[in-house]
Design goal:
The longest helix has 6 residues. The protein is globular and about 75 Å long. The two termini are about 40 Å apart. A hairpin with a 2-residue loop joins strand 25 and strand 26. It is built from six helices and 39 strands.
Length: about 750
C-alpha cells in the first residue's frame, strides 16, 4: 500500500525515513521546517512510497490527532502537558508530583489521581504501559521529542488490554535532524532550573539521539520542591538493506516532596498551604496527616506534610530492542523485547508504599502489502506476551520527620501476564474508498497474595489472602474511509476495547471484609466515531469527530455497608460517553500577515451513568441510590485551547515570533450524586521567542524565549480527584456544604509565573 503525505518541497528529503509513520492513513500534514519557522512560500508536492511502519504506530481508520515540535519547542516544556495542550480530545490535570501529569483522552483518566490510565502508551513504538495498565508521565521531558500522536476511541483490537480510550505514541527526535550538539537551560519562577543536552547524528546507515536533563525547583505549594533527572536514547542501525536494529533506553529518577490534596474548603482558604509547617499552630485551611506515635497502634498525632517528610522517590528504567526484517519490498517482520522496571518509594499518606514492579514485553508482528481484485491490500498480524512480577510493602509512617518508617501494615506479592494476538486488514476496494477490519484478543492471568499485619499492646497478628483470576477478551473493529477529493477525507469507525481489574481490586469483598473479590468482570466498551478532515487550501485545515461510546462493567469503588473495613471495587453495569472533538488551524491573512495563524482545539465530553446503583453507609445504616442519568464525576465537559501565533518570515525581524494562548476548562462534578463541583477556569499565557536567521552567522545557532503563564494571576484547580458521597444520620445524602470538607481531592494550579530559556546548537 502506498503512503501519501503532503509536505513542503524544502523538506522532501527528510520524508524518506518514515515520515508517514507518524500519521494515520486519513491525515494530510503540512509541517514546518526544522527550525520551526513559517516559510514565506511553500510549494506542495506529493510524495508516494511504500510505508513500512507498523499498524501500531499508524492505526489505519482510527481517529488520530497529533502535535509536533513546532507546537511546544519554543516554550518552557516542563511536562507532557506542554506537548498535548493543543491536541483536541486530550485534557490533563495535576498528578502526584511535578511531572506526574494525568493525561486524559475523551475522559480516560479524569477519575484518576496519577498517571495515564485506560490508555496504552508507546514511545518510538516501544510499550511504556506495564502489564497492569500503569503508565506515568514522569519519564517525559518535552525537549527530547519530535511529536506525539493520540489514537482516540476504543482500541483493544491492536493494543490489547487497557486500551479502553485509545493509545498514545510519543516519538523522539531524529539524530539526523539534530546533526550535532544542543545545549539548553530553562529557568524561572519558584526556583525552577532545567539544564539539558541533546546529541544527534545520522545518515543512511544509522541514526543516534542521546538526551539528558536535570530539572529542579522549589514548587509553589509548601512541601513541593523537586529534582528530576531523565536520560533518553534511541539508536537505529541498518545492518543490511533488509535488516534494522532499533535500541531504546529511558531512565528517570524522581525525587519530589509532596503536599496533601485539599478539600474544596481548604483550597478556598489556603490554596498554596502557606503557614502550615507546624500543624499545632497552622493557619486556616492547612492540611495534615495523622501518624501513629509508635508506628504500630494507639495514639496518633497530626503533622504537616513538610514535617512528616511526605514525597515520591521513584526510579523508572526501560530498555528495548527491536529487529525489523524485510523479506521483500512488500513484507516486513518485526520482533521486539522490552524490559521495564518501576521502583517506588512513596510516603504519600500516613503509610509509605514501597516496592519494585518488573515487567517484560515480547512481541512479533508482520506487515504485508499485496493486491486483492487489483486493489491494494495491507495485512497486519501479530502476537504479544507481557509479564509483570511485583512485590510491595506498606509501612506506617512515624512522626519523627523524614518519612520515618514504623511497622509494616501489609505486603503484596503477585503477577499479571497478558497473552494477545491481533489481526487487521486494510483494503482499498475502490479508488476513493478503503475498508478496515480487525480482531484482537487477550488472555490475562492475575494472581497475588496480600498479607495484613495488625498490632496491639498485647499481640501482633497477620492474615494472608490469595486471589487469582483469569480473563479472556475479544475486540473486533471496522472502519470505512472515503476520500472524494484531495480536500476531503470522511471516516467512520466502530471500535471495541476491554480492561481487566488489577490485583489491588481483588482483596476487599462486596461484604466489606478482607477477602477474595475475584467475581469482578472486565470493563468493556463499544464506540462509534464519525469524522471529517477538510483542507480546502494551504491556509486552513479542519478536523472534526463525533463519538458515541457504550461502556459496560466499569470498575468503580463503593461502600459495602455498615461497620466494614473499607470500600470495595464493583462493576457499574452501564454508562454512555458521547461528545465532539474539533481541531482547526487557520492562516486568516496569508498575504498581509503571512506568519500569522490561529490554532484551536475544542472538546465536548458528556458522560452519564445509564445503569448504576450506589450504596452509601454510615455507622448505623446503609441505603442504595440510583445514579441513572447522573454525570460521571471527574469528567471535564468542555475544554478549549486557542493560540494566536505569529512568526516573522522575512525582513529585519525575521525569526521573531510568539503567541497568546487562552486555555479554558469547564467546571465538573466531583461526586456520583452530582452535589459538588470543582470550579472551572480560564488562563491567559503569553510567549515570545527569537531564532536569528542564517545571515547572522554564528548567532543563528542561538534560540531564546520568554513566557508568562497565568497572566491574570488566577487561583484555579489544577487537579481534583473524585470524592465519596456520604450518608447522614437521617438516611439522606449529604449536600455540598458537607462534601466541601472532604479532604484528599484538590491541588491548586500555579500562580502567575515567569520563565525564560536559551538553547545553542553546535
Amino acid at each position: 500500500m502506498a503512503a501519501v503525505v503532503v509536505i513542503p518541497a524544502t523538506s522532501a528529503c527528510a520524508a524518506t525515513e518514515g515520515a508517514a509513520a507518524h500519521l494515520s492513513e486519513h491525515h494530510t500534514l503540512v509541517p514546518a521546517s526544522k527550525t520551526g519557522k513559517i516559510p514565506a512560500k511553500t510549494e506542495q508536492i506529493l510524495v508516494t512510497g511504500l510505508n513500512r511502519s507498523s499498524a501500531l504506530t499508524r492505526p489505519t481508520g482510527q481517529t488520530t490527532y497529533s502535535s509536533d515540535r513546532r507546537d511546544f519547542a519554543d516554550q518552557i516544556g516542563q511536562s507532557v502537558a506542554d506537548m498535548v495542550v493543543t491536541i483536541p480530545g486530550v485534557s490533563f490535570t495535576q498528578g502526584n508530583g511535578p511531572r506526574d501529569t494525568v493525561v486524559s483522552v475523551r475522559g480516560s483518566g479524569d477519575r484518576q489521581s496519577y498517571g495515564l490510565k485506560n490508555l496504552q502508551v508507546l514511545e518510538d513504538g516501544f510499550p511504556m504501559t506495564q502489564p497492569d495498565g500503569t503508565a506515568r508521565a514522569d519519564l517525559i521531558d518535552p525537549h527530547a521529542y519530535q511529536g506525539v500522536d493520540v489514537f482516540q476511541g476504543p482500541a483493544s483490537t491492536l493494543y490489547g488490554n487497557y486500551a479502553i480510550n485509545g493509545a498514545i505514541n510519543f516519538h523522539t527526535r531524529q539524530g539526523a535532524d539534530i546533526h550535532g550538539l544542543e545545549l539548553g537551560s530553562d529557568f524561572g519562577s519558584f526556583g525552577m532550573f532545567n539544564n539539558y543536552a541533546t546529541l544527534g547524528f545520522g545518515n543512511s546507515r544509522y541514526d543516534l539521539m542521546i538526551f539528558g536533563s536535570d530539572v529542579r525547583g522549589n514548587g509553589f505549594i509548601a512541601n513541593s520542591r523537586y529534582n528530576t533527572s531523565t536520560e533518553n536514547v534511541r539508536l537505529r542501525v541498518n545492518l543490511t538493506s533488509s535488516d534494522r536494529l532499533i535500541l531504546k533506553f529511558v531512565n528517570n529518577v524522581t525525587d519530589a516532596f509532596l503536599p496533601v490534596r485539599l478539600s474544596l474548603s481548604q483550597y478556598r482558604a489556603n490554596p498554596y498551604q502557606q503557614g502550615c509547617a507546624n500543624a499545632a499552630s497552622a493557619a486556616a485551611g492547612c492540611a495534615s496527616v495523622n501518624l501513629l506515635v509508635n508506628g504500630r497502634y494507639g495514639a496518633k498525632v497530626a503533622m504537616s506534610p513538610e514535617a512528616a517528610g511526605l514525597g515520591r522517590f521513584d526510579r523508572r528504567t526501560v530498555v528495548g530492542l527491536r529487529w525489523e526484517h524485510d523479506f521483500n519490498s512488500h513484507t516486513t517482520w518485526r520482533n521486539q523485547f522490552t524490559y521495564d522496571q518501576r521502583h517506588i518509594d512513596q510516603p504519600t499518606s500516613p503509610t509509605a508504599y514501597v516496592g519494585p514492579y518488573n515487567s517484560y514485553n515480547v512481541s512479533s508482528d508482520i506487515t504485508n502489502h499485496a493486491q486483492l481484485a487489483g486493489r491494494a491490500l495491507e495485512t497486519f498480524a501479530g502476537v504479544s506476551f507481557d509479564y509483570l512480577d511485583f512485590g510491595s510493602q506498606t509501612y506506617n509512617i512515624m512522626p519523627f520527620g523524614g518519612a520515618t518508617r514504623g511497622a509494616m501494615s501489609s505486603e503484596s506479592y503477585g503477577h499479571q501476564w497478558n497473552l494477545g494476538a491481533r489481526f487487521q486488514e486494510d483494503w482499498h476496494f475502490a479508488p476513493d474508498w478503503h475498508i478496515v477490519v480487525g480482531l484482537g484478543g487477550t488472555y490475562s492471568d492475575i494472581g497475588a497474595t496480600e498479607t495484613l499485619y495488625g498490632y496491639s499492646a498485647t499481640a501482633s497478628t497477620q492474615r494472608a489472602i490469595t486471589a487469582n483470576r483469569f480473563y479472556f477478551n475479544l475486540a473486533p473493529e471496522g472502519a470505512l474511509i472515503y476520500t472524494p477529493s484531495k480536500d476531503w477525507t470522511l471516516h467512520t469507525r466502530v471500535g471495541t476495547a476491554y480492561g481487566t481489574p488489577s490485583s489491588s481490586n481483588l482483596f476487599i469483598t462486596p461484604q466489606g471484609q478482607y477477602g477474595n473479590n475475584t467475581q469482578l468482570k472486565s470493563q468493556t466498551s463499544v464506540g462509534v466515531d464519525l469524522g471529517a478532515d477538510w483542507h480546502p487550501s494551504s491556509n486552513i485545515s479542519l478536523q472534526a469527530t463525533g463519538f458515541y461510546e457504550f461502556y459496560q462493567n466499569e470498575l468503580v469503588s463503593q461502600s459495602a455497608g455498615v461497620n466494614t473495613v473499607g470500600s470495595y471495587t464493583f462493576n457499574a453495569p452501564a454508562s454512555e460517553h458521547r461528545g465532539v472533538v474539533l481541531g482547526v488551524e487557520w492562516k486568516p491573512l496569508p498575504k498581509m500577515l503571512p506568519g500569522g495563524r490561529i490554532k484551536l482545539s475544542y472538546t465536548y465530553d458528556n458522560q452519564v451513568y445509564t445503569n448504576y446503583s450506589e450504596v452509601l453507609s454510615n455507622s448505623t445504616l446503609s441505603r442504595s441510590f440510583s445514579r441513572k442519568g447522573h454525570y460521571i464525576p471527574g469528567v471535564i465537559p468542555n475544554f478549549l485551547n486557542a493560540r494566536f501565533l505569529y512568526d516573522q518570515p522575512e525582513g529585519p525581524l525575521e525569526g521573531l515570533g510568539g503567541y497568546a494562548e487562552v486555555t479554558w476548562r469547564d467546571s465538573y462534578w466531583l461526586d456520583n450524586a452530582n452535589r459538588l463541583k470543582a470550579p472551572g477556569y480560564a488562563l491567559l499565557n503569553l510567549e515570545v521567542h527569537y531564532d536569528p536567521p542564517v545571515r547572522f552567522g554564528w548567532a543563528h545557532r542561538l534560540h531564546w524565549y520568554f513566557e508568562v503563564q497565568n497572566v491574570a494571576n488566577q487561583t484555579y484547580v489544577a487537579g481534583a480527584t473524585n470524592i465519596s458521597d456520604s450518608l447522614q444520620a437521617n438516611g439522606q445524602q449529604s449536600g455540598a456544604a458537607t462534601l466541601m470538607n472532604s479532604t484528599g481531592s484538590i491541588y491548586a494550579g500555579s500562580p502567575r509565573a515567569y520563565f525564560g530559556g536559551v538553547r545553542i546548537r553546535f
